[in-house]
Design brief:
Blueprint (H helix, E strand, L loop, with lengths): L1 H11 L4 E5 L9 E5 L16 E2 L1 E6 L1 H6 L5 H23 L1 E2 L4 E2 L4 E6 L4
Helix pairs in contact: 1-3
Organism: Caballeronia ptereochthonis
Pfam families: DUF5594 (PF18057)
Protein name: DUF5594 domain-containing protein
């Protein structure tokens, strides 16, 4: 997770907090939380985005995590780290999230069951 945090933080830029939320139970696995204090205000002169402040959670499929321990897992993970910026771009368009303005359309967004494909 620390390597993913570093890459995600670099990809989303300043103003976004990226933190690991530890495993709580089977319904609340280890998560990566991306957040910002507030969304841009209408008429404030700030970049316009969605109405809600950034509040995104990322989780990975358990089987995918286990596959990283198989032969070739480290190389697969390195390819994934290199592709994370493009993945974040694709995810934000699909779920009405805008990292540039630290905003999103819904109060909370989950990108769950992720894999480690590049």
């Amino acid at each position: 997770m620390p390597r993913i945090v570093e890459r995600v933080a670099r990809a989303v830029g300043r103003g976004v907090r990226v933190e690991i939320l530890p495993y709580e139970n089977s319904r609340m696995p280890t998560r990566l939380h991306l957040s910002a204090g507030r969304a841009p205000r209408a008429g404030s002169g700030e970049a316009r985005g969605y109405p809600c402040p950034l509040n995104v959670f990322l989780t990975w499929d358990d089987e995918e995590i286990e596959r990283l321990l198989d032969a070739g897992g480290e190389a697969r993970f390195l390819r994934y780290l290199e592709a994370i910026g493009a993945k974040l771009d694709a995810w934000q368009g699909a779920r009405e999230v805008d990292f540039a303005t630290c905003s999103q359309a819904e109060p909370s967004v989950l990108f769950g069951g992720l894999d480690f494909e590049a």
